[in-house]
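Entry:
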Amino acid sequence: MRSFFWSLIYGLLALLVEVCGTYEVDPGQVHAQSYAQRRNVARPQFPPQRTLNPAASDNQCQSRPLDLVFIIDSSRSVRPMEFEKVKIFLADMVDTLDVGPEATRVAVVNYASTVKIEFLLKDHLDKVTMKQAISRIDPLAAGTMTGLAIKKAMDEAFTEQSGARSRSKGITKVAIIVTDGRPQDQVEEVSAAARASGIEIYAVGVDRADMQSLRLMASQPLDDHVFYVETYGVIEKLTSKFRETLCGLDPCAMGHDCEHICVNNVSSFYCQCREGYVLNVDKKTCSLKKVKAEVIQDPCMCEARLAFQRQAQNALQDLSARHIL
C-alpha cells in the first residue's frame, strides 16, 4: 500500500515537471504579472490617453457652411501637454465639421505676446491636410495679447484675400477663442468691432481664465457663446457642445408653412407638392393639376349613329309625303 502511494506521488511530480518544462514559466514574469494584478486591483482603470492622430476621422454632422477661425492661447501658463490637448480639441472640431471649398473653411491664429497665423482659410480645404497642419503647431510661450489676436484675425484671417467668402454669399463667420488667462491688453473695443463686422465670437475659458473678459469678447446671447472648463484635460467635452451649436439644424424641423412637403435646402427650405398637384404662385400652397379632357369616339359608333340618323330622316320624309299627298 505504501509503495503504491509513493509511486503515485512520483508520478504526479514527473507530470508537474513535464508541464513546467513545456510552458517554461519565467519566475520573473510571474512576479511582474502578480504585481500588475495587485496594481489593477488597487487602482481603477482609465481609458488610454489620447494623442493627436491626423488620419483619424469621426462621424460628422452636416454643418452649415462657415468661415471659422480658431484663436488659441499658447502663453507661458499653458503647459506643453495642455497645449497638446488644445490641438486634439481642434482636430476633433475639424472631424465634426463638413470641411470643403464650398462647405466650412478653417484657419488657426496662435497667440501669446505675439500673434501668428498658423494657416489661412484658403490653405487647407480637406480634413487630412488640415489636421496635419494642426499637429505641427508649436506654442509661442509668453504673454497673453488676446486683443491683438482678435484684431489680427479680423484684419487678416477673415479677408477675402485669405479665403473668406464675400458677404453676398451669406456664409457665417465664426471665431472661437480658447484662453486660460487674463488678457494683457484691451479686448472690449476690438471685440465689438469684430462683432460689428459680422463675426460671431465664442469664448472658451479654461482653469484660471477671467470670466469678465470672456463676456466682453463673446457675442450675444452670452449663455450661448461663453463656455468654461476646469482643465485642459476635459476641453474635449466641448466638442459635442459645439457640434450642437455649429451643425446645421433642419429648417423644416424648426417650423414651416408648406401645405404639402418641406424640403431642407441647407440654411433654408422650399415647398413641394404631392403627385397630382402643382405649387401655387405663393410657393407654399398646392392645387390639383388641371387635366384637359379629350373625348375620343369610336369610329364604328359614329358610322352607326349616322346610318340611324339617315334611316330616321328617310322614314320621316316618307311619312310626310304620304300625309301631304
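DSSP finds ten helices and ten strands in the chain.
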